[in-house]
Amino acid sequence: MEYTGHGGKAIVERVVSSQSQARELIKGLKSVAVTGRTARECIGIAYGFFTPLEGFMHKADVDTVCEKMTLANGTLWPIPIVFDIREEEIREKTIEKGNTILLIYRDRAFATLEVEEIFNYDIAKMKQAVFGTIDAKHPGVKMYDGFEDTFIAGKITLVNRPKFQPPFDKFWYTPNQMRQKIAEKGWKRTIAHQTRNVPHSGHEWLMKGAWFSANGEMPVEKLETGILVSCIIGPKRLGDYIDEAILLGQQKLHDAGYFRDDIHMVSFVMWDMRYAGPKEAILHAIIRENLGCTHHMFGRDHAGVDSYYDSYDAHRIFDQLPQGSLNIKPVRVLEWGYCPICGEVTYSGLCGHNKERQAFSGTMIRSIVQDKVKPTRLIFRPEVFDQVIESAEKYGFGSPFCTEEYLDKRQPVFELAKL
Questions:
Q1: Vertex 26, ends 20 and 28: CA angle to 5°?
Q2: What is the DSSP string of 371-383?
Q3: Model pTM score
Q4: Structure confidence by residue, pLDDT tens digits, 107-153
Q5: Which of 100, 219, 254, 365 has a CB 3.0–4.6 Å from the CB of 264, allowing a cystine?
Q6: Which stretches within 69-174 are classed as H helix?
Q7: How far from 382 is each of 75, 245, 278, 376, 379, CA to CA, in Å?
C-alpha cells in the first residue's frame, strides 16, 4: 500500500533491495567518507522520514527554507538538510555535476548520491535563519560552524541497509512500517511524544493528558487513539541518558501496565538535534506526520536550549503557519508536577497551589538516578527505575548517563554489511 506523507507526496523509500543489486550499482564509483550526522540523515531521507525530500537540498531550496521556511516548491520546511564537503576533496576526486558518488560510512559502502548541483552558501545566513542567533555557545550554531564550505545536492539511495543492534532492533520502524503498524492497531488518532529522556511520572502524565486531548470526543471504549513514543537517537554528550535506558525505560511503562499495550508503543528516529526551538518543533511535527501520527505533543522548551527561546515559542509558531501546510495537529501542554496540598501529581493549568507545587526538576531526577536510591512512586515508577539501573549495568558500564567510557566503547546503534 502507498502512503501519503508531508506535502501530499508518497512516502519516499529509496533503498536497494538486495546486496547483488547494490554491488552492481556501486561498481566504479568515486567514494566519499561521511560523518555520523550525514549517515543518519541519509537514513532519514532514504526511508522517508524526511518526505518529500529524496536527497540533499539544492541551493534554491536552502534559500527558501532560510527566507520563507518552505522548499522552493512552497512546501513547508523549516531546517536545511544539506551535504557538506571540502572543496579540495571535490577537486581531488574530480566530482562533477552528473556524477554518482558512493558514500562510505565506517569503511563500508552505505549510499549513493547523485550529484545534481555543487554550490557554496553563506553559513552565517543559515545559522541566523535556523537558530535566530550566531552565538557560538548555541549547540546548533556550533554544529553549523563545523560544516565544510561546499555543498552537494542530489538524490540519495541506500545501498546497504542498517542492521540495528539489540535493544534498538525491537524499536526500529520505517514510516511505511509504522503506518502499517498503526493500521493493525486500529488507531484513528495517533499522538507523538518526542523524548530524549527516561520517563519520570511527569512525562507519564504529559502523555496521558495529551491522550485525552487528542482522543477528543471519540468513543473511549474502542481505544482508537494511540500514543507513539518517538525517541530521538543521535550524538550523545557527557551526562545525557544512554540511549538504551531511554528506549527500555519508555517501554517499561506499558510492560508494567501503566499504559495499555494497545494504546502505547515505543520507536525511535535517527536525528542530530539542532536545538533550534520553534523551527525544530515544526520539523519534528513533519517527521511524525510522515510516520502516520495525527497529533504531536509539545511541552515547555521543546527543542530549546538555555535562554535562546521563550519556554513556549514552540506552542506559538504553529499559529503562524499557513492553513493546510501541515497535516498534523499540535497538542500544546503545560507542566505536570507534584502538589503536596492536592496530594497528587497535578496539571499546572488546573491546580491553584502554584507556590506549593513541586516541578519535576531534571537535576533532581538525575541526582536520584545517579544515587541509585529508589524514589517514591510519585516521582518514578519503580519498574522504570529498576529498568534504568539494569540498563546502566548492561549497556552503560555502570552508569545510566553518558560517560567517556560509554562514548568510547558503546556498541554501535547499527552495523553495515560488507558488500
A1: 125
A2: HT----TTTS-HH
A3: 0.94
A4: 999 999 999 999 999 999 999 999 999 999 999 999 999 999 899 99
A5: 254
A6: 87-92, 123-131, 139-145
A7: 45, 14, 34, 8, 9
